[in-house]
Design brief:
The complex is a heterotrimer. Chain A is α/β, with parallel strands linked by helices. Chain A has helices spanning 43-50, 73-78, 96-103, 114-120, 136-149, 166-183, 194-200, 218-222, 225-232; strands at residues 5-14, 17-27, 32-36, 58-63, 66-68, 81-83, 154-158, 186-190, 203-208, 211-216. In chain A, 33% of the residues lie in helices and 25% in strands. In chain A, a hairpin with a 2-residue loop joins strand 4 and strand 5 (66-68). Chain A is globular, with a radius of gyration of 17 Å. Helix content of chain C is 36%, strand content 25%. Classes of the chains: A alpha/beta, B mainly alpha, C alpha/beta.
């Protein structure tokens, strides 16, 4: 069986700068895959490529059996690729409930109904609040709910836990584990919370200066000396978890 | 991989208690009653001049409602309201004068024609945003005016057109009172239609477009299509307003449809409160009254507009509509949650 | 140095912070902990004069500064580093830093630039580069550097670790510790509880806009909130948290 997402030889150049070089990455159904690395390593660019926001300079991507040609954000979304953004991009004047409603398409069965999604990410009771009035962490959670409302096959999350408190991270982790397990979604997430990556993810790929420097199980990858130097820092011994 | 899957917690049956039907439709019923009273009383009680002003108020309300959708809600900075009003006015007038089409039939054609032009201009907004869109639509307005002036074989150029007084099936609508009776239901239906659109899924998409194009695309909704729909709706409102304007004033010339109209409308929706339907209605009415009030004092109009903008922006940035919604919001609803 | 009593703040009609009192002592780090939407950023905004105070009292060295505007507070030495590294992306590193000295009348800006560059050697290498091209970590350094150019007595740091790689988080916190050693006073809002407590002398925990715990770092470590934050990062199974 072919993987849900298969990326081969993908490169992105901005002028003379290679933001991503010759990236290969495969993601199976129901798999949660972390993309980690220092700031500026090219992780968000990868998310942008898969979701059609960034054209590739070279390489190819497949979603299931389908070759993804030149994607636009709209076509990517319609093929079942949903995403969140590093800086939350919400519909600020709309209520929390309406943010999710804009995304849920009739005619396609959602995973959960909108109200349920809002509860699952931990925003119960805030349905009527304007999205722009939410705290930063709550905005991130709403973005996750909105992405799930698209009923995606592949979910791309750009730093979903940034700015979240421990309780919210735990709830989010349970939700992601559950949708991957029950519904077979593939999830690719960019994340700096190493503790979360270790607990949640099946696979991890580490990027540095646009290149993959390690990939494999999170535990193995996070004890790789190259990763420790470039990303974790000298003082963080690999066995020691960084609290959220 | 450890299983952490738990059964779904039953979703809470916490739906808001249903309001009674009467309570739910109360705003609509109140509006209907006010309109009915206005419809019955105004033609008897008001002078021709006052009724004429009421007719112009309706024209400006329709124009403001359309512009508010594009600028206030979807935040596409399109500055060609004047041209759209002119298209509606000239299409309606020329159909009546050159082809003998009755007024009531010329209305829907004017609406469709203006919609089509506005939708076509939206293709520019597919690529250009912000200042570029503003400049391109401004340029479109200038070109449109230039054409009106120079295509004098059709438009009678700068001398303008004396528009025939509308008549239908032998009934003349020449008197301002008769026009008022014709306009009020049209305006009411148009504004009510906007309200339905605004509170439905299309309205959500329109607000979403104004808040984040990127996010809209990311959930599979095409921002370009949303823009075209917004422009087309603006065109429909402006086209109707234009046809009504030609009938109400009885004379149109190229200079009635320039940037001045656009700026007046922009002031109207700013004073009323960007994005708010009530604001567009109130703003359109207030601005018409200001214009009528200082018509004979050259230059005063601009000063009054400027002052109105200053007062609104410094005093209540959410516009006149913000005054009402603020009062509503400060009820002790779910404060502190 | 700074004392806040009975502070109540609201966003529009919704009360976000209710009757909060706390103190910030000189030459130490005080940390504000709490879940998303607890009111941390709201308090920061009010302390820097960007949000009106609905009720309560803010005093700096005993003088009432409640309701003072942002410019006056900066003049008094209270400078905020806002959440999300808000640098001026089109301006160079040097220009960003010089803007931080905007309100100052003295002529020692040059010396101060040197002082900042000593703290942030990475910025010294990039004085002519536009801020938008810096990595996330460098932008955070620049934002702190810009605030320091205002010669603050009290620095308000809102989530400095947000979206940063672990190695960069360490670097940022090294600098925070260094600044306090040099005599600066810092009020810190942070989700990275472990990092925050590693530098904070004392702090308090917010929940739903009120203070539910306060004390020294050790006292805070005994609270439920902090306990859960550490628990949430353990290598064990995803934790069970109390459903709301």
């Amino acid at each position: 069986m072919s993987p849900l997402l298969d990326i081969r030889g993908v490169s992105v150049r901005f002028g003379g700068l290679a933001a991503v070089s010759d990236l290969a990455l495969a993601l199976g159904q129901g798999e949660i895959h972390a993309l980690i690395g220092p700031n500026g390593a090219g992780k968000s660019t990868v998310i942008n490529c898969i979701s059609g926001f960034q054209p590739l300079s070279a390489g190819e991507m497949r979603l299931g059996d389908e070759r993804l040609g030149q994607l636009t954000p709209v076509t990517a979304a319609r093929k079942g690729i949903a995403r969140t953004f590093q800086t939350p991009q919400l519909f600020g004047r709309l209520s929390v409930a309406d943010n999710v409603r804009v995304a849920s398409r009739s005619g396609r069965t959602g995973l959960f109904d909108g109200g349920e999604l809002i509860e699952l990410v931990g925003l119960a009771g805030l349905q009527a609040r304007a999205a722009e009035s939410l705290a930063y962490g709550q905005q991130r959670l709403l973005e996750v709910a909105r992405a799930l409302a698209c009923a995606p096959r592949l979910l791309l999350l750009d730093e979903p836990a940034a700015g979240l408190a421990a309780d919210d991270i735990a709830r989010l982790a349970r939700l992601l584990r559950r949708i991957a397990g029950e519904l077979g979604l593939g999830i690719l997430l960019v994340e700096h919370n190493v503790g979360l990556v270790k607990r949640l993810c099946d696979q991890a790929t580490v990027m540095h200066h646009g290149l993959v420097i390690a990939s494999g199980s999170p535990a193995a990858v996070l004890s790789d000396p190259a990763v420790v130097t470039a990303y974790l820092g000298a003082q963080a011994s690999p066995s020691q978890a960084r609290p959220c | 991989m450890r299983s952490v899957v738990e059964p779904l917690s039953p979703s809470k049956a916490g739906a808001a208690p249903h309001k009674s039907i009467l309570a739910r439709y109360r705003p609509w019923l109140v509006a209907l009653a006010v309109l009915a009273a206005l419809f019955a009383a105004a033609p008897r009680l008001l002078s021709d001049y006052q009724l004429y002003t009421l007719n112009l108020i309706q024209v400006n309300i329709l124009l403001a409602v359309g512009l508010n959708l594009v600028i206030g809600v979807t935040r596409q900075f399109a500055l060609f309201s004047g041209a759209l009003l002119g298209i509606g006015a000239y299409v309606a007038a020329l159909l009546q004068m050159r082809l003998g089409v009755p007024f009531l039939l010329s209305l829907p054609v004017a609406v469709l024609a203006t919609m089509a032009v506005s939708a076509a201009v939206s293709l520019v907004a597919w690529r250009a945003g912000g200042l570029y869109l503003a400049m391109i639509t401004f340029g479109f307005g200038e070109v449109f005016q230039f054409i009106l002036v120079h295509a004098d074989a059709i438009t009678n150029g700068p001398d303008g057109l004396a528009v025939p007084r509308p008549a239908f099936a032998g009934v003349s609508f020449a008197a301002p009172a008769r026009l008022f009776e014709l306009f009020l239901p049209l305006t009411a239906i148009a504004v009510a239609g906007y309200r339905l659109m605004e509170t439905g899924s299309l309205g959500r998409t329109m607000t979403a477009l104004g808040d984040s194009e990127i996010a809209l695309a990311s959930v599979g909704r095409d921002p370009r299509m949303a823009k075209t729909i917004a422009f087309a709706i603006q065109g429909a409102y402006a086209g109707l307003a234009g046809a009504m304007f030609a009938a109400a004033v009885g004379f149109i010339d190229p200079y009635s449809f320039g940037l001045g109209v656009t700026l007046q409308q922009l002031t109207a929706i700013a004073v009323g409160g960007f994005g708010s339907l009530a604001g567009a209605v109130v703003g359109g009415a207030v601005l018409t009254l200001i214009e009528r009030g200082v018509m004979d004092l050259p230059g005063v109009r601009e000063i009054v507009y400027g002052l109105a903008l200053l007062v609104v922006f410094l005093g209540f940035p959410a516009g006149l509509a913000g005054l009402f919604s603020r009062r509503r919001a400060s009820r002790p609803a779910d404060a502190g949650r | 140095m700074l004392s806040v009593s009975g502070l109540t703040l609201s966003h529009g009609a919704a009360v976000a912070v209710r009757d909060v009192s706390f103190e910030v002592r000189e030459h130490e780090v005080t940390v504000l902990l709490g879940a998303n939407g607890a009111g941390k950023t709201t308090i920061m905004m009010a302390l820097s004069g960007l949000l009106p105070v609905r009720a309560g009292d803010i005093r700096l060295d005993g003088h009432r500064i409640t309701g003072a505007g942002n410019d006056r507070l900066v003049g008094l030495g209270i400078v905020q580093v806002p959440q999300g590294r808000q640098v001026f992306p089109g301006m160079t590193v040097r220009e960003n830093l010089e803007l931080g000295a905007f309100l100052r009348r003295d002529r020692n800006v040059g010396t101060d630039l040197d002082r900042i560059f000593a703290h942030f050697p990475k910025l010294a290498e990039r004085t002519g580069q536009t801020a938008g091209t810096l990595s996330g970590g460098e932008q955070q350094m620049l934002a702190i550097g810009r605030a320091l150019m205002g010669k603050p007595r009290l620095l308000l740091l809102d989530e400095p670790s947000l979206g940063l790689a672990p190695v960069i988080v360490d670097a940022v916190y090294d600098i925070v510790a260094e600044l306090v050693r040099d005599g600066l006073t810092i009020l810190l809002a942070e989700q990275n509880v472990a990092k925050a407590l590693s530098v904070a002398a004392r702090g308090f925990v917010l929940e739903n806009g009120t203070v539910i715990a306060s004390g020294s770092g050790a006292e805070l470590a005994a609270t439920d909130f902090v306990h859960r934050a550490y628990l949430g990062s353990s290598d064990d199974d995803l934790p069970h948290d109390a459903e709301r």
